[in-house]
Design brief:
It is a single chain. The protein has about 180 residues and is mostly helical. It has a domain of about 110 residues. The chain contains 8 helices and no strands. The C terminus is likely disordered.
Length: about 180
């Protein structure tokens, strides 16, 4: 992930590089915080293959995998054909599924630890993408500044065309008493 962010930065694609770096760093910080708050223990050693230490919920690699590979898929899928987007998303989902399934198989984590890690990673991606949309959207003040203060004047061609608003008289002026028209009852 660090290499992908460095590659994007080298190509001067700053926004995707920052989004990928924030996905990685934020998922690690968020996961460590939640692990210390929850403090769930791992499955018993008799059920696991190997020795695993530390808190179990949420599974850190599942959180980081879905946050990083999911964000990378979102970045790479931008402006691509629908089949390419589907392929990128499928690959990201497969990598994260394999990372979680291996930990359940080894007995290092409960299935709910993996599911919690995926949910936390997906939540982090959603927060990053929502923040990116809000930052990219122009503010109301800047939108008002770009709007013209007055109506644009019609061009000569628009004024000379028959049947345009410039050539037709005002309907209210035709029937006003000050114009001298006769009103029949």
């Amino acid at each position: 992930m660090v290499l992908a962010a460095a590659f994007l930065a080298a190509r001067r694609q700053w926004r995707p590089a920052i989004m990928l770096a924030v996905a990685l760093a934020g998922s690690v910080i968020l996961n460590i915080t939640v692990q210390h708050l929850v403090g769930r223990s791992r499955p018993p050693a008799a059920l696991s293959i190997g020795h695993h230490a530390g808190p179990a919920f949420p599974f850190r690699q599942a959180t980081t995998a879905i946050a990083c590979y999911g964000m990378l898929a979102v970045i790479l899928a931008a402006d691509r054909a629908p089949r390419i987007r589907a392929l990128l998303r499928t690959v990201a989902a497969a990598v994260t599924a394999l990372a979680g399934a291996s930990q359940v198989y080894l007995g290092a984590n409960w299935l709910t630890d993996i599911l919690g890690g995926w949910a936390l990673g997906a939540l982090w991606i959603a927060i990053i993408l929502a923040a990116e949309l809000l930052l990219r959207r122009p503010s109301r003040r800047s939108a008002r500044a770009r709007q013209p203060k007055t109506r644009p004047r019609p061009t000569r061609r628009q004024q000379a065309q028959p049947g345009t608003a410039a050539e037709l008289p005002d309907a209210n002026a035709m029937h006003s008493p000050t114009r001298g028209s006769v009103v029949f009852l």
